[in-house]
Specification:
The complex is a heterodimer of chains A (about 400) and B (about 170). By secondary structure, chain A is an alpha/beta fold. Chain A is built from 15 helices and 14 strands. The mean pLDDT of chain A is about 95. Chain B is an alpha+beta fold and about 170 residues long. The chains are: A alpha/beta (about 400), B alpha+beta (about 170). Chains A and B meet through helix 1, helix 3 and helix 4 of A and helix 1, strand 4, strand 5, helix 3 and strand 7 of B.
Chain lengths: ~400, ~170
């Protein structure tokens, strides 16, 4: 009987040792949660972005990680559904050393923000200016949406004057009827007024709208000289396709935001997109293809450049930021005590971080949640997205709005 | 002899606690019970659910906490976008009022993605040709307070669509 008890004790002791060994060998790992869309309406851009991030992380891990710490990439397919993202965050929020959440949708970011605060963690979101107005634990990928719209308005004024026109142009705005679509105007509208642009009443339509003729016709009848088409590619491509069919692209200059036509839209509708202007915080088209840091990583991991999409570089930029944040947080807290709060603090020290030319230098600080301050203006010319400006600082439109 | 038993019991308890601690994805556990009502409790899948979606009402949650409503994925059922290791998919969410009551309705994306399992066209239209609607059956629905872990449960019955009258 005594031997039997000793055997049972030794089994437990063995289990303890195995567990302890597992903890020692597997413990040096941190996690990154991407609440992404891989099979839903914005998958066309989200998939290449997370490919860039996961390739970057894979290569870091293959080289031994960050100070021996491996990064565990957790990608969840929300299919652009906020309820699914909230549920997924519930599932993963207690993951040990979950240091960052990427909420890929303005709606998801807003829904998860309160939980991120309670969990003393940090999240990154596309461009919701609310988090620059009320600085908390949510960081933006680049300048706020409203800053980028203001930069577009600046370009519109330059273009208007360069064409020999007097006064200010009339501008129309149409975008998705959701938090993303409305965010640009929360400060953007005030900026238009500030520089004298007459902004027509905005038009909103549900994602998935098949034809945009009604909205476009209303803006054209309102006297629009320029129309800013929002939505995630291929939506802007489809809006401009409809404008082209109506003959509007001949007399109205179309502009788009960060999610305007990429290789995705250009591959299908290059002809109708000719001449349109894109304001972007990350490199597009030929610029992205000329960035060897980005294209080499693509070739190493994905092979032929045939299916390359410039959003891949944006994913790499997320990875660069995360890795530098990890280095800073480990330096400050050490691995054993490392928590989401340490990453939150570390992100605030990344001001000036070089993003390998993919976007402007990091602008995160204790007072700034902007991922960078610069945008670049591109024009579709002969089926290619070519830069027509250098990097330029986007105006602060967030501060013009009362949140 | 008794000391051996005590030692084994002690080791077993410690082992359980340690292994539980290693499980990073544990949810807050609460014995408190909330109530949950699914409205309507019985449906058949039709496009009418986009305009008149399934909604949820609950009581007994912590005041002002976010409540996540999830459908338990039955074993063997694959749902587009949901990992095989995931046991539930979110359908809706809401915030409890000061009395701990909440209500929430499924958004069109949730109905399309999780009930119809549609595909999405390059034009961002739901593609019903790729749809794989949930099979008829009884599905468990859970509502969980995100702060308290207080949970309520109910069922949603999906029945086959009524047969079209023969012409």
């Amino acid at each position: 009987m005594k031997a039997r008890y000793l055997n049972i004790c030794s089994v437990f002791a063995g289990l303890f040792l195995t567990l302890a060994l597992f903890r020692v060998t597997a413990a040096k790992e941190v996690s990154y949660l991407s609440l992404a869309d891989y099979t839903g309406p914005i998958a066309g851009l989200n998939v290449p972005a997370d490919m860039g991030l996961s390739d970057f992380i894979k290569e870091i891990n293959e080289k031994g990680g960050v100070d021996g710490i491996k990064i565990n990439f957790i990608g969840i397919d929300t299919r652009y559904d906020v309820a699914r993202a909230v549920s997924a965050y519930k599932r993963y929020r207690r993951t040990e050393k979950l240091l960052m959440v990427n909420s890929i949708s303005t709606g998801i970011g807003k829904a998860v923000a309160g939980l991120i605060e309670k969990d003393k963690r940090a999240q990154i979101v596309p461009g919701d200016g609310e988090y620059q107005a009320h600085v908390q634990r949510t960081f933006l990928w680049g300048p706020a949406y409203q800053d980028a719209l203001a930069a577009t308005f600046d370009w519109i004024m330059e273009d208007w004057k360069a064409k020999g026109n007097a006064g200010a142009p009339v501008v129309g705005y149409l975008s998705w009827d959701n938090p993303y679509g409305r965010e640009h105007l929360r400060g953007g509208q005030e900026y238009a007024q500030k520089i004298g642009i007459k902004l027509l009443p905005p038009e909103f339509f549900p994602p998935g709208t098949l034809k945009h003729d009604v909205y476009l016709t209303r803006l054209a009848k309102g006297g629009a000289n320029y129309i800013h088409a929002g939505g995630v590619d291929p939506t802007p491509t489809n809006v401009i396709r409809d404008a082209y069919s109506l003959g509007l692209t001949k007399k109205i200059q179309f502009t788009t935001d960060y999610w305007g036509p990429t290789e995705l839209g250009l591959g299908v509708h290059a002809e109708v997109l000719e001449g349109i202007v894109i304001t972007s915080f990350f490199q597009r088209g030929e610029d992205a293809k000329a960035n060897s840091f980005v294209t080499d990583m693509w070739k190493r991991n994905r092979g032929s450049m045939e299916k390359f999409n410039e959003v891949y570089g944006m994913g790499i930029s997320w990875g660069i930021t995360f890795v530098e944040g990890l280095k800073a947080s480990v330096k400050a807290a050490g691995f054993e005590k490392l928590e989401g709060d340490d990453m939150y603090k570390a992100y605030q020290t990344l001001k000036g971080l070089d993003k390998k030319g993919i976007q402007g230098p990091c602008a995160y600080s204790d007072k700034s949640r902007r991922g960078s301050l610069e945008v670049k203006i591109y024009r579709i010319t002969k089926g290619k997205a070519l830069p027509i400006s250098d990097w330029r600082t986007a105006p602060d439109a967030v501060s013009l709005h009362k949140f | 002899m008794r000391s051996y038993r005590t030692a084994i019991l002690f080791l077993a308890v410690i082992f359980t606690v340690v292994t539980a601690g290693c499980s990073g994805t544990m949810s807050p556990v609460s014995k408190a019970k909330a109530t949950l009502e699914v409205v309507p409790a019985e449906i058949f899948l039709s496009p009418a659910l986009i305009k008149s979606p399934v909604s949820f009402k609950g009581a007994g949650f912590q005041p002002n906490e976010m409540v996540s409503v999830e459908m338990v994925v039955p074993k063997g059922l694959e749902i587009k976008g949901v990992g095989k290791d995931e046991d539930a998919v979110g359908l809706a969410f809401g915030t409890a009022d000061k009395d701990g009551n909440f209500s929430a309705a499924m958004q069109p994306t949730a109905t399309l993605n999780w009930f119809f399992q549609v595909g999405w066209t390059p034009l961002l239209r739901p593609d019903f040709k790729q749809a794989k609607p949930l099979p008829p059956g009884i599905y468990q629905i859970n509502a969980t307070g995100m702060d308290s872990g207080i949970a309520g449960s109910s069922n949603l019955k999906i029945v086959p669509p009524p047969k079209q009258p023969q012409k």
